[in-house]
Amino acid sequence: MDLATSLAAYWYFHLPNFVLAALMYTLLGRVLLGLFVDADSPNYIWRFFCRITDPVIVLFAVVTPKVTPPVVLWLFGFVWLFWLRVALHYTLLLFNLAPRLGGAAS
């Protein structure tokens, strides 16, 4: 099975996995950039990272203690997104819906 066929056949795996990975690494980028930039900086890259990741952080803030510093919350968000990706892959493997090496599922 070639790449285009795999992407078309397993879009329900690849699309959520890509979105979760993009959010995950954007959160990591926010953590790293937060070491150099103030929280209220007018820097357009910083504002982009904040605009993209703020909705995700709001979701994870619900299950995280309120006394947690923002940087730690961002790192928790990274870890939560990682485990969401693992859960997605495991669930699809469990139902024999995930792409496998060698093409078709056995």
Q: Termini distance?
A: 14 Å
- In DSSP terms (H or I, runs of 4 or more residues), the helix count works out at 4
Assign an overall shape.
elongated
Helix content: 55-70%
Estimate what percentage of residues fall within beta strands. Answer: under 5%
The helix/strand series, from N terminus to C terminus, equals HHHH
Kindly summarize this structure in a few lines.
The chain is mainly α and 106 residues long. Helix content is 70%, strand content 0%. The protein has one domain.
Key features of this structure:
single chain; mainly alpha; elongated
Structure description:
The chain is an all-alpha fold and 106 residues long. The protein has one domain. 70% of the residues lie in helices and 0% in strands. It is built from four helices and no strands. The chain has helices at residues 3-9, 11-34, 44-61, 70-94. α2 (11-34) packs across α3, α2 (11-34) runs antiparallel to α4 (70-94) and α3 (44-61) packs across α4. It is elongated and about 50 Å long.
